[in-house]
Amino acid sequence: MFKVQTMLAAVFALALPAGALAAAADAPEGYRLSEPIVHGNLAIYFVHGTSRGGPVPLTLQEALARKVIEVRETGKVNELEIENTGDDEIFIQGGEIVKGGKQDRVLPMSLVVPPHSGNLAVSAYCVEAGRWTQRGAEDAQKFTTAAASVPSRSAKLDLAATAAAPPVTGGSAIGTTQQRIWDGVKRIQGKLSNNVGAAVASPRSQSSLQLSLENGQLAREQAAYVDALERRGLEADDIVGYVFAINGKMNSADIYSSNGLFKKLWPKLLRASVTEAIGEKDAAAEPTPQRAAAAGFLTSLNGRRTVESDAGRTATVRKRETNAAVFTETRPAAAAPSAWVHRNYLAR
């Protein structure tokens, strides 16, 4: 069984001197963890490492813009259909929101969609309660953008609970998760409205998380964080991921197989982290964690049992969890264990 915990434990050894980026000899990726970069209540720790060779997959937003992927309605709230009509792999990150259709959706788990995939059924959850019709001039049968991700650790934990399940399931589990997602959207909207000083819900659809994330006042609040932090993730060619903390508490981490994929995703990832930080600005804060705390977060799943499942024909998902954290790893279906594309860590 692939021992990612053992590898990371060596890489993020707590004995590293302050400011050092020295890699452990027994870590193939050569990961190093940076000191925290802080703006307001958000702390970022960049993960440095060697990128795997080969083509960098398209992101979902890139593929939609190039019209080489279609994301379509199936008539079911919790199921969508995707088709890659192009020649490149497409990476879809868990938590990405697709806008349009009969209601905006969030895709719960990371997937790798192969070229010329044919029609594939994927799980989805509604992030816009109540609408089941065309909105304005949008296409009611297709989704045309994926510009945002869910800005909530608790919502991501709800989504991660489905990561070791088949991509489309039925029954009470889906219904329970869906209700939790709807409740989470309301909490996100409420927190953001309180902390930006204006209602973020859109008159076009009060329940749409996507439209709330497009709010102009929220964008102005995001700007100072983004100006301070975005360029830092683009400066080095060996950054392959990041860990972040809000109000002095570890939140989550995302690590990718290459700097190329990280750079494509970084602006969207950062905005989601910033949005969550804005929503938590009025919460109690602790001192910024030292790098050792971020290292401990990443190594907290050492020795835990791995649950592996196929995410349809698109990917294999490996999952580990404790009472304190959840880890998932995504790799293309039928790929070698070393060919992972995305690793996600969520604090509980």
What labels would you give this structure?
single chain, nine-stranded antiparallel β-sheet, seven-stranded antiparallel β-sheet, 8 helices, disordered N terminus
How do the helices and strands line up, and which of them pair or pack?
Layout (H helix, E strand, L loop, with lengths): L3 H8 L20 E2 L3 E3 L2 E7 L9 E2 H7 L2 E8 L2 E6 L5 E3 L3 E5 L4 E2 L4 E3 L6 E4 L1 E2 L15 E8 L3 H8 L11 H25 L12 H5 L2 H14 L9 E8 L2 E8 L2 H21 L11 H8 L8 E5 L3 E7 L3 E8 L9 E6 L1
Parallel strand pairs: 4-7
Antiparallel strand pairs: 1-3, 2-3, 3-14, 5-6, 5-13, 6-11, 7-10, 8-9, 8-13, 9-12, 14-15, 15-19, 16-17, 17-18, 18-19
Describe it.
By secondary structure, this protein is an alpha+beta fold. The protein has one domain. It has 8 helices and 19 strands. Strands 1, 2, 3, 14, 15, 16, 17, 18 and 19 form a 9-stranded antiparallel beta sheet that branches. Strands 11-6-5-13-8-9-12 form a 7-stranded antiparallel beta sheet. Strands 4-7-10 form a 3-stranded mixed beta sheet. Strand 5 and strand 6 form a beta hairpin. The radius of gyration is 19 Å and the shape is globular.
Poorly predicted ranges: 1-29
What amount of the residues lies in strands? 25-35%
Q: Give the N-to-C terminal Cα separation.
A: 25 Å
**Largest sheet, described in full?**
9 strands, antiparallel
Q: Which term fits the overall shape?
A: globular
One letter per element, helices H and strands E, the order comes to HEEEEHEEEEEEEEEHHHHEEHHEEEE
Structural class: alpha+beta
Number of strands: 19
- The percentage helix is 25-40%
Number of domains: 1
Number of helices: 8
Mean pLDDT: 88
Rounded radius of gyration (Å): 19 Å
